[in-house]
Amino acid sequence: MILKKIEDEFWTSKQRQEFPLHYILSYRASFKAELPDFFIRHFSKQGESVLDPFGGRGTTALQANLLRRIAFHNDINPISQKIAYAKTHPVALSEIAKRLQSFDLTTHTPIDEHQELLAFYHPDTLKELLNLRRAIQQNYDDVNRFIELVAVSRLHGHSDGFFSVYSFPQIAVSPEAQRKINAKRNQTPPYRDVKSRILRKAKQCLQGALRFQERFPESLNNQIRTGDSRNMSWIESETIDLVVTSPPFLDKVDYIKDNWLKAWFYGINEDSFKDALVQTRNLEEWKTFMRETLKELYRVVKENGTVVIEVGEVMYKNQTVNLDEIVAELGEEVGFSLYAIFINKQRFTKLANCFGVANNEKGTNTNRCVLMVKGYAQHLNVPLEKTTLSLFENDYNS
Q: Using the 8-state DSSP alphabet, how is residue 345 labeled?
């Protein structure tokens, strides 16, 4: 196996430089929109299909639509499907305001079964959330699904814009951990009006998203599903032009524990999928999982189609393991031709430092993107210049 590694800063390390909808909510272990943007621009054309088998918060799906591609989104976690659908089906702010006005969130609602949530919420805020959740489910159309997404984005965080008392914004800590935070900070959950915070956040993230389906008609053909990356039977063989994805990295993230509050609001029983979720510390088990996933990708990708797998370097048994090299080897085993490994080096921001990840010192410090082709990689003749932020204005705001 000959590894061609191309190292540069292919996309900016600055935060929040892409379409505002991308930043509607935090989601653990998600990549920046600039990553799929780079590969979608260089390795696909308008009207083609782009798949993310580990879809997460729908970054690849949304960026594919914004670049006039059809999105295929898959994830084993049902939360992901709900997020990705709502992000790619935004509605007008006026519709959200009208719908919120129609909701009566003051109805008396017992909270006895939700006592543990009082570590996060004032009792009246919790009652409003329970009433909101019920109202959304009574008419599960695109307006309510988008309101649901915005509400989920406000469940916990560190500012007045969230429903909760001061908490961690990206992961949902346990009620016990939140009580410790409250005691340490000498804080009590204040009342937070639910409707006004949803409207404020919606206004912020819907900039440029009016008439989304008219401006980005490819989104009407999106396929957004919940399922195992090793068996995406809902996708016909040789359907996909480009794959851009990032698999779980050797049990570095607990997708169930970190998202338990989202699951609560969505009404998702985590027991329904936790056994199928691959979270392993064993490198051989991870390799088996990835080999089977790559076999399935080989089936669904068209001849001369491209697959981009973003991984990183991890510490395993006190040694640094570059997962890109492992993925490249597995890809060749199942029939792909290796084109190159793109290594995007960047300086970390304050969020990474919250997790103790210093700049290029420990943890996953680089985006290492393995690019493979179903067929002969030599047919690719792609300029490798960096993306520019001016493309944002040209493509999204016209």
A: E
> CATH no. for residue 248?
3.40.50.150
CA-nearest of 190, 260, 220 to 64 is 220
Look at residue 86 and give its three-state secondary structure: helix
Same domain for 104 and 56, yes or no, is: no
Whether 345 maps to a domain, the answer reads yes
DSSP string, 134-153: HHHHHS-SHHHHHHHHHHHH
Which run of H or E residues covers position 320? strand 319-322
Question: For the residues 249-270, what does the mean pLDDT come to?
Answer: 86
What is the b/e burial string over 245-281, where b = at least 16 CB atoms within 10 angstroms of the residue's CB?
bbbbbbebbebbebbbbbbbbbebebeebeeebbeee
Mark whether 196 and 151 lie in a shared domain.
Answer: yes
Q: Are residues 136 and 242 in the same domain?
A: no
Number of domains making up the chain: 2
pTM comes to 0.89
Summarize the confidence of residues 253-271 as an average pLDDT: 89
Q: How far apart are CA 171 and CA 28, in angstroms?
A: 7
Going by C-alpha positions, the residue among 312, 315, 324, 314 that lies closest to residue 367 is 312
Residue 190 CA to residue 147 CA, distance in Å, equals 22
pLDDT digits (tens, 9 = 90+) for 183-213: 999 999 999 999 999 999 999 999 878 789 8
Alpha carbons 115 and 69: distance in angstroms, whole number: 45
- 160 is in which domain, residue-wise? 93-205
